[in-house]
């Protein structure tokens, strides 16, 4: 079991690994250069879809206060905050939100319905903003004048310069009770920052909201409100119990941050899945070298080393993963403990960590 879903880049690498068979993948240096090129292309494409506009509305024109929902962890598995922040007041007007919903529903009706195939591991009923020109133009206006400064204030370590914000993928999501589309399971996003804009509310549905793992409560925004979190944080779309809920989601990156660690992690996962354990080990170590707080890389490296018959080295990787709070989530935290127990030399020590797994299971229930 490998934690992070593959981004488009990671999926392309996985397909290339499968196609190359037993041939050697490019060197780490060559892949690092490829990361830079891919990132530059992503940023170029993002600016073409969401160009800065002269009419961008400054955040200062809207009085916005925010609320942070803390989590039990001490940091994400990329060394980023794992909490979620939300606005207490609407940032966008009800009319603007209704216009987004109307365009999405019209496009879905004309184009064969709401797609459930764009995100294969965690399918949501959505419509890409590439199919919604009016919504895309509206978001371009709000992105650079309003949302980028807001995100830079909330997450200065991830986005120190607001002008570097780019939208990697944008889409409108619909949760519909009667169709059984009520929630989204716990997952991570393959980006740097994630924005949710609440498009409706006011009795249109019950339940819903964003739940970041280990958080004490759901984050729920009123119509026009914004919820944001680091994409590395494991989170879920909480289930609705009635009605229909619409949100606009934007997966964002920074033009100033290539994220070599995340990209090496995705490539390492693909190599491990292909059974190329030596190459997977080298790639996962490159991810850790770029970002030692990348918890999922330590976790996957432990799996690879255990499969290679190196229990002492696997133990060190599992222990490193467990020392980084807040990123794995309950189920994989337990899996890491079980992995650690399997490589401990003494049964008594194995029993002790297995008891920790039982305790973790009870705490997460």
TrEMBL record:
Offer an example of a GO molecular function term for this protein: dioxygenase activity
Q: What is this protein called?
A: Fe2OG dioxygenase domain-containing protein
- Does Kinase appear among the keywords? no
The family database entries (Pfam families) matched by this protein are listed as: TPR_8
**UniProt entry keywords in alphabetical sequence:** Dioxygenase, Endoplasmic reticulum, Glycoprotein, Iron, Metal-binding, Oxidoreductase, Signal
Classify the source by domain of life: Eukaryota
Asked if the Swiss-Prot or TrEMBL record annotates the protein with the keyword Glycoprotein, the reply is yes
Q: Which InterPro entries match?
A: Oxoglu/Fe-dep_dioxygenase_dom (IPR005123), Pro_4_hyd_alph (IPR006620), TPR-like_helical_dom_sf (IPR011990), TPR_rpt (IPR019734)
Please give the cofactor(s) recorded in the UniProt entry for this protein: L-ascorbate
Please list which residues make up the signal peptide: 1-21
Fe2OG dioxygenase domain spans which residues? 163-254
């Amino acid at each position: 079991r490998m934690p992070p879903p593959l981004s488009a880049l990671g999926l392309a690498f996985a397909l290339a690994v499968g196609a190359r068979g037993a041939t050697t993948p490019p060197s780490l240096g060559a892949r690092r250069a490829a990361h830079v090129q891919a990132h530059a292309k992503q940023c170029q494409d993002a600016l073409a879809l969401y160009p800065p506009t002269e009419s961008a509305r400054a955040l200062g024109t809207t009085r916005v206060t925010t609320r942070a929902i803390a989590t039990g962890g001490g940091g994400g598995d990329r060394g980023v905050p794992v909490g979620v922040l939300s606005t207490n007041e609407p940032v966008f007007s009800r009319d603007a939100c209704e216009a987004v919903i109307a365009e999405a529903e019209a496009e879905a009706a004309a184009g064969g319905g709401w797609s459930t195939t764009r995100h294969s591991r965690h399918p949501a009923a959505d419509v890409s903003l590439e199919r919604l020109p009016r919504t895309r133009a509206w978001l371009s206006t709000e992105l650079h004048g309003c949302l980028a400064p807001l995100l830079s204030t909330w997450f200065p370590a991830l986005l120190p310069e607001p002008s570097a914000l780019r939208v990697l993928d944008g889409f409108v999501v619909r949760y519909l009770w009667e169709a059984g589309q009520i929630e989204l399971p716990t997952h991570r996003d393959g980006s740097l920052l994630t924005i949710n804009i609440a498009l409706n509310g006011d009795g249109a549905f019950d339940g819903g909201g964003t739940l970041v793992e280990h958080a004490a409560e759901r984050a729920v925004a009123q119509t026009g409100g914004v919820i944001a979190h680091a994409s590395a944080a494991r989170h879920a779309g909480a289930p609705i119990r009635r009605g229909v809920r619409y949100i606009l989601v934007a997966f964002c990156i920074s033009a100033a941050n290539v994220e070599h660690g995340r990209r090496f992690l995705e490539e390492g996962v693909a190599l491990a899945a292909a059974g190329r354990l030596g190459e997977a080990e080298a790639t996962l170590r490159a991810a850790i070298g770029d970002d030692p707080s990348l918890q999922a890389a330590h976790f996957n490296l432990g799996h690879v080393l255990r499969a290679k018959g190196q229990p002492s080295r696997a133990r060190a990787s599992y222990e490193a993963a467990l020392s980084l709070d807040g990123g794995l989530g309950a189920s994989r935290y337990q899996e890491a403990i079980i992995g650690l127990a399997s490589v401990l030399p003494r049964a008594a020590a194995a029993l002790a960590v297995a008891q920790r797994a039982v305790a973790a299971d009870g705490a997460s229930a």
